[in-house]
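During the practical work, I worked with a single protein chain and the tokens that describe its fold, as given directly below.
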Amino acid sequence: MRGKQTSGHWAAPLARRLGLDANPLRRGTDRAEAWIRIGLVLVFLVGGPLAGWGAGRWAEATAARAAAVQLASDHRVPATLLRNVPFGPDYPFRTALSLGWVKARWPVPGGGERTGYVQVPLGSRAGSTVPVWTNRTGAITTPPLLSSQVHGWELMCAVLAPVLLGLLLAMAFGAARGLLDRRRLASWEQAWSAVEPQWTRRLH
């Protein structure tokens, strides 16, 4: 008996808060809005984790395919610097990220050489070599994604997917509520058109 009383004690306020109680002032549109809200919350609670997991798996597969394609077509070759790379005015405060552009020469797949500019640490000397990535034509290209970059891409997709799902559900709820508000307004106008003649007669 005590368990039933306790259950009823919290069930009634919860139903009132959700808009599902037996209040005679609640219209059908109010209850429909409450059920739509509950349904969308359940969709988010179930679909959010699934969307995050699916987006993470998709990002992982996409990054793996892109890395495989790049490794099949690109090559890592040594580029020989043709000039020194002087230090800048902030030399005492330079870091490993202090880079500069310098002209260099590197081999081209199939024979021959190509000349262009590569980015190297400040202070590099002419004649030293740095590894660069080139495509089939010998042009400088971006290096393959590092594992940390792949994991970061997976994490970003896994986080953004539930957020986007939540935004879509919020937009759906807004659209549904707009339709219900129109029905409420039409119902109010219909009720007022029935009451107004009697009300205006009373005023006179």
The radius of gyration is 34 Å.
